[in-house]
Amino acid sequence: MSETHTAPALPAPGAGQKARKVRGGGRGGSNWWAHIVLSIGGFIMVFPFLWQIVMSLSSTAEVTSVPPALWPEELRFENYVEVFRQVPFMSQFWVSVQVTVLTVLGQIVLCSLAGYAFARMRFVASATIFAVMLSILMIPNQAYLIPQYQIVQNLGWLDTVQGIVIPTIFSAFGTFLMRQFFVSMPAELEEAARLDGANSFQIFWRVMLPLAKPSISALAIITTLAAWNNLLWPLVVTSRAEDRPLSVGIASLNGQYVIDYPVMMAASLMAMAPILILFIVMQRRVIEGLAHSGLKG
């Protein structure tokens, strides 16, 4: 007696993929949710900047009203003109540029040299000296504010650019950042350069420093932000408005009894614009520099 065998039914083409999409929501669905969450997070981060722009174009009554006006009835671009009337904006802008450029150049040179020495050279108590230098990061700047002021005063550098720059021209963090990069470099590079007759400085200048561009870029951006926004030290060592950087000039717009918020927001936007442009241009280098140096060693 013959038996009849029935072939098992094959699933329809694409049925498994449809089932997986139903169970897991599908890759497209998860991407949509990711875009929605990221868009909400991005808007939350950008909202203070957008609100600052709105405030700079509003009147004081609109800004201080409860609830505040989400959009001004009339765009007041004269708030930006008022900034130049209340503070010597261009003089303070030039002081900020000088302070920032000199501080960045000084830290790149000194921190690169110190970082290379700690990473590649062996000298007496190098580890101890490096540990003591890093301990500076644990001390707040206010602790040595008075001794620094006395030194600058004795040198006759009050109300000068060098009085603002010299105490901030070196940083323990910058030295640590550069040291971490130089430590990660292969020793064969130095050995090959020494076989070619190069001395220690030539190895540093011609071999190591060109390879350290990502870390130098990161150090430059971090130092630029710190120098441009530095408020306490320039406020202490300067007394005349034209000798002060923009950070101090904007803070002076904060009156004792009345605060002109639209003018202050306009001045903040004008001071923020150069740094914002610089960060957008150098953003990739900053990420590369921190990835190569800050996460190793």
Automatic annotation (TrEMBL):
The chain crosses the membrane at residues 32-54, 93-116, 123-144, 164-182, 203-228, 261-281. GO terms for cellular component: plasma membrane. It is found in: Cell membrane. It is a multi-pass membrane protein. Residues 93-282 form the ABC transmembrane type-1 domain. Keywords: Cell membrane, Membrane, Transmembrane, Transmembrane helix, Transport. The keyword Cytoplasm does not apply. Pfam families: BPD_transp_1 (PF00528). Coiled coil: none annotated. One of its GO terms (biological process) is transmembrane transport. Residues 1-27 are annotated as: Disordered. Belongs to the binding-protein-dependent transport system permease family. This is Sugar ABC transporter permease. It comes from Parenemella sanctibonifatiensis.
